[in-house]
């Protein structure tokens, strides 16, 4: 039976506990699992039967989260990990090694940009950053050693809308997969697989969890990319001596990536998700449709208010949100994101860093911290915090200015949020 999205957020991957009838998913807070006998132990280690051996590799509570996210995204499976950064690293480390190359949007979360631009080159993996709106730039950046194209559904923090159908077509023409970070949109607003993406990951810390209490990440595989036919991925299509000479593409024609990522990536890198964290993320998923609808409604009211004040008192230079007609991706957003674009957006204050400081310090409802997607409204100054490692040139290319303020709109009464913003703008106007 095929269930609708809201039902899947509550039920996918889980049935009442067979022993005690618990309706909520039990927390299997255990490192390991007792074998029934020697034959079962051997078969589990050799992947001849399903089951759990050690919670670094898999766990019953974590497995429910993985199945639920796969169902919500329309994928064949998923792997939950310790953070969104761990999810991105797992994808890269599974697909390539030294000499590999990535083509990525230049409009990325600062942590992702740092990983690609500074850390991975130490291990021989390099990245070319391109304008996400320029299809010719994507095509021109592909090299013989390229193994992955990567972008965000909505670039952070400028909300560049990734034209997934267009970029996926470019990737597939070269026998390459497209990886999409869908943290800002969640599957409630957009399902990248429906538009041609091959792999999706989330920082589950944000909207999926929704309450700022737990860090986690998740990778979902569409199951549609043919790793063997591409001929560019020996990690998936050639025997792996680290796991009994297994050829993962032969073992599974639809889940080769997931097999390798779990059997090598989780085993060797160890970035596993705690069962307690998985349970907390499951609680967040149960209210995802309700929260996202309220996030979007509140955001539209706040964006309209700020846009109405642009130029009114000289403090606001621009508001950046795809809902606004002057956003370069307005038409694309209407086509790909009919439910709404995001509750995270930016606006630019005149007066640069000093104005940003005055604005933030005058707020009382918004919390000044480094996160998005919380039930509570959040504010930050990207140039001095989340993106501070980027050069001035890279910041400008990503649409970040000295006076850029990023807001994450929560679930409060929008009238209180608007009053709080007006308080901050009044402080800026005083000078």
What does this structure look like?
The structure is a single chain. The protein has 2 domains: 5-285, Aspartate Aminotransferase, domain 2 (3-Layer(aba) Sandwich); 288-430, Aspartate Aminotransferase, domain 1. Helix content is 40%, strand content 13%. The chain has helices at residues 5-11, 38-45, 60-73, 84-95, 110-119, 135-141, 164-173, 186-189, 227-230, 234-237, 248-251, 256-269, 275-286, 288-309, 330-336, 352-362, 392-397, 414-430, and strands spanning 77-81, 101-105, 126-130, 146-152, 178-181, 199-203, 217-221, 316-320, 344-349, 367-368, 378-380, 404-408. The chain has a 7-stranded mixed sheet, with helices on both faces. Strand 2 (101-105), helix 5 and strand 3 form a beta-alpha-beta unit. 50% of the residues are buried. The mean pLDDT is 94.
Layout of strands and helices, then pairs:
Blueprint: H1 5-11, H2 38-45, H3 60-73, E1 77-81, H4 84-95, E2 101-105, H5 110-119, E3 126-130, H6 135-141, E4 146-152, H7 164-173, E5 178-181, H8 186-189, E6 199-203, E7 217-221, H9 227-230, H10 234-237, H11 248-251, H12 256-269, H13 275-286, H14 288-309, E8 316-320, H15 330-336, E9 344-349, H16 352-362, E10 367-368, E11 378-380, H17 392-397, E12 404-408, H18 414-430
Parallel strand pairs: 2-3, 2-4, 4-5, 5-6, 10-11
Antiparallel strand pairs: 1-7, 6-7, 8-9, 9-12, 11-12
Helix pairs in contact: 1-3, 3-13, 4-12, 16-18
């Amino acid at each position: 039976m095929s269930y609708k999205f809201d039902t899947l957020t509550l039920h996918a991957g889980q049935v009442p506990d067979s022993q005690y009838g618990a309706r909520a998913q039990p927390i299997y807070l255990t490192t390991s699992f007792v074998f029934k006998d020697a034959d079962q132990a051997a078969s589990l280690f050799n992947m001849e039967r399903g089951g759990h051996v050690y919670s670094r590799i898999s766990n019953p509570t974590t497995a429910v989260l993985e199945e639920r996210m796969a169902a919500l995204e329309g994928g064949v499976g998923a792997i939950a990990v310790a953070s969104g950064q761990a999810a991105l690293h797992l994808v890269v480390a599974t697909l390539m090694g030294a000499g590999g190359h990535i083509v990525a949007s230049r409009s990325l979360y600062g942590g992702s940009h740092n990983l690609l631009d500074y850390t991975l080159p130490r291990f021989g993996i390099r990245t070319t950053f391109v304008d996400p709106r320029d299809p010719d730039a994507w095509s021109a950046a592909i090299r013989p050693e390229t193994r992955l194209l990567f972008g965000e559904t909505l670039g952070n923090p400028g909300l560049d809308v990734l034209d997934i159908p267009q970029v996926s077509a470019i990737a597939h023409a070269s026998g390459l997969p497209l990886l999409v970070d869908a943290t800002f949109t969640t599957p409630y607003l957009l399902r990248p697989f429906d538009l041609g993406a091959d792999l999706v990951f989330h920082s589950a810390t944000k909207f999926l969890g929704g309450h700022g209490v737990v860090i986690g990440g998740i990778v979902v595989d569409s199951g549609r990319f043919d790793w063997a036919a591409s001929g560019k991925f020996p990690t998936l299509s050639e025997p792996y001596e680290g796991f009994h000479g297994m050829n993962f593409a032969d073992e599974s024609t639809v889940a080769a990536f997931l097999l390798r990522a779990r059997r090598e990536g989780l085993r060797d890198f160890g970035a596993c998700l705690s069962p307690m964290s998985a349970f907390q993320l499951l609680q967040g998923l149960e209210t995802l449709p309700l929260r996202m609808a309220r996030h979007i409604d509140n955001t539209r009211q706040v964006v309209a208010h700020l846009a109405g004040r642009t130029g009114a008192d000289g403090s606001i230079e621009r508001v950046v949100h795809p809902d606004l007609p002057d956003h370069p991706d307005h038409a694309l957003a209407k086509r790909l994101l009919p439910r709404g674009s995001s509750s995270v957006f930016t606006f630019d204050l005149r007066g640069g860093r000093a104005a940003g400081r005055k604005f933030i310090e005058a707020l009382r409802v918004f919390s000044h911290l480094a996160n998005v997607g919380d039930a509570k409204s959040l504010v930050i100054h990207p140039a001095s915090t989340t993106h501070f490692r980027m050069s001035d040139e890279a910041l400008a290319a990503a649409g970040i200015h000295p006076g850029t303020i990023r807001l994450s709109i929560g679930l409060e009464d929008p009238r209180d949020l608007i009053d709080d913003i007006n308080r901050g703008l009044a402080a800026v106007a005083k000078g």
